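Per reviewer request, we include the raw input and output of the structure prediction for the construct analysed in the revised manuscript.
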Amino acid sequence: MTLEVTTDPARLDVGLVHRWLSEDAYWALGRSLEVMERAVAGSLSFVALDDDRQVGYARVVTDRATFAWLCDVYVAREARGQGVGKALVAAVDATLTDLGVRRTLLATEDAHALYTPVGFEPLTDVHRWLIRTRAT
């Protein structure tokens, strides 16, 4: 595998990412293409490519100064176990470090081992964090 990670929007296949997430990602099942397009437009997208074939995706919602939320990390089924997720997370980490972003948040049910090596850890002061969830 010849892996490249880029933030170039011209290299992103939004339709493919939409299919991956809306059909195969527990957190985004049924997400509409229109919602995906709006999410991409308001975010910094990372595309993992193997010889120009898109094999992974990660999205970061950020002000590019103080805060970021890492989300929608997905690796194509045929590319799993080949370091794509690690490369995406490393590229996100490097980019946010270069921007000076000090706090990055994410949520995962099952991929803690992907994120802890780059410094993610469970919230220790959960009493400070609040969430509001709206019905869709």
